[in-house]
Predict the 3D structure of the following.
Amino acid sequence: MRLTLLVLASLISITSFSQNNELETERTRGAILKLNLPFTAITAGGVKGSVEIKTGEAVSWELGGDITPPGYYQETFSINSGMRYYFDKDAFKGYYIAPFLRYRAYQDPEVRINGGYIGLKSGKQWLLGKKKRFVIDTSVGIRYALIYDKNWTENPVIEDDLDQLFFDLSNYAYDFYMGGFRPEARLAIGWKF
């Protein structure tokens, strides 16, 4: 249900983008394909990236996510969508602010977690090179868990105080990582098309 709502919101954004984009001139079109750094997702067998599509002179839409395929210790999947508003009135370049929505699913041998998030980030993006095609994007922000569901995959066996302490610390770590407010930082490289 939660994933359905996020996908529906993204489709509405895409439809709005398509209708608005027909009115824009060729000068305002473009897209950037980005890969998030550091490459921890790649070394773990997954991919974390995004695509940013210009929708106006100072506005763009970004769709991104990450996935780690089954078979690794931790399996993750996330999808996020958001609009970027550039202060320099030139989408793809300069300082921006970006509200976003995200759905994230995480599973390891002990726990399965699903969450829906809302957030706000601010950053700066540079277009480098002779043709201004190479992209560096940095941002910081905060997100909040609107929906947070944690299910232990098996009932933990708690036989002594040490087991209880481990269970409590694991619970706290999962809640910190997935629940409540959490700061975010990002560094990405990309290519403008």
About this structure: The chain has three helices and eight strands.
